[in-house]
User: Which sequence fits this backbone?
């Protein structure tokens, strides 16, 4: 699986937007970009995924660079409940279903 | 969204005993489930892929005789940690996908925290 690189940690003030970056320079043409997050002492939960176009859902937005070598998860208005470790993962739809978790970004929300 | 449950949520056992952890997909069928292990302050590490009706596929370095996986139905997979030792203490998490294909999301259980004394 292609590798992703994320900052180890980030901080953001409550009620402000948060931009979480992810680099994936070796992404293949068929890899989807998935984001999951893990709140403390819980299993991960799906956030969003995309292929080429930017994506929006009720939780977040995903901005994908034109060359697809990087992407940014955007939380439009962070709350304390968004404090979690965010994982950016590449998945090939024609490969197996395994998810390979990197170290992720630990997001701290400052009240 | 789809719901995956795990039981128990927390277990404490003595060294040498075996512990069974159940993973259930509550509102969908899953031909494939996954088992992860997570040590404190670390990321999730995939242990094995559980396939309904066939043997599990283990990741390199995971002992199949120590971590027994049974996927008896389309909604239930079990992980048994045999002869548990303190170094097996960890957070065990399962996941499942409602349909095949890499684009689909995986739904994770809440995790089981195992403490071996």
Assistant:
């Amino acid at each position: 699986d292609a590798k992703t690189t994320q900052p180890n940690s980030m901080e953001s003030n409550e009620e402000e937007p948060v931009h979480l970056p992810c680099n994936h320079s070796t992404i293949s043409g068929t890899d989807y970009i998935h984001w999951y997050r893990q709140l403390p002492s819980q299993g991960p939960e799906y956030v969003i995924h995309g292929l080429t176009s930017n994506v929006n859902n009720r939780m977040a937005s995903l901005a994908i660079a034109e060359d697809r070598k990087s992407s940014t998860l955007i939380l439009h208005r962070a709350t304390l409940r968004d404090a979690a470790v965010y994982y950016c993962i590449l998945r090939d739809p024609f490969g197996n279903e395994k998810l390979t978790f990197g170290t992720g970004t630990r997001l701290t929300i400052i009240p | 969204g789809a719901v995956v449950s795990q039981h128990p949520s927390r277990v404490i056992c003595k060294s040498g005993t075996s512990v069974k952890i159940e993973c259930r997909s509550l509102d969908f069928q899953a031909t494939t489930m996954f088992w992860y292990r997570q040590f404190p302050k670390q990321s999730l590490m995939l242990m094995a892929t559980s396939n309904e009706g066939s043997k599990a596929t283990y990741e390199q370095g995971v002992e199949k005789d120590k971590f027994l996986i049974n996927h008896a139905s389309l909604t239930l997979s079990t992980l048994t940690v045999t002869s548990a030792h303190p170094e097996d203490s960890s957070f065990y998490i399962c996941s499942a996908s409602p349909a095949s294909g890499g684009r689909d999301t995986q739904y994770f259980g809440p995790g089981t925290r195992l403490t071996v004394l």
